[in-house]
Amino acid sequence: MADAVLLAIRWAHTLAAVVWVGGGIFYWLAVRPNVRSGALSAEHARAIGERFGKAAVLAMWVIAVSGAALFFASVSEPSVAPRYVALIAVKVALSAWMFFIAISRRKRLLEAAAQPAGRIRAIARALGHVNMIVVLGVIIFLASDLLRVVET
User: Fold this and answer.
1) What is the DSSP string of 35-84?
2) Which pLDDT does position 37 carry in this prediction?
3) Domain of 143?
């Protein structure tokens, strides 16, 4: 029974991650180019963003809750390898960065508009940009696959 519950939690975790990161990739590949070319109005793009935003918030909650359960289930095993714990810690840290970007996005957009541009500010904006969510998400998917290799 416990294996079935962990499988369901892992499945929900993965599905939520696919929704969040996949939505970002969809934005990069479909929405943004069509807005720039004029094939999609900014109003429609905002409507897409608002609808996806609701799914993304739900996905974040699912990822956080299921991720905590999976974390404790995996690190509580007596045979867990230190390199597995180290890799899962990296995955958790990258996930926290993603959550921070998503949660603080609006505040940073308002602040960025009011502040002059500079090299350090440009780097900070790039590391905190919403596109970084997709980059981090792809890296986290890679880390998830590496966890399977490390655990065997």
Assistant:
1) HHHTSS-HHHHHHHHHHHHHHHHHHHHHHHHHHHHHHHHHHTSTT--HHH
2) 92
3) 2-151
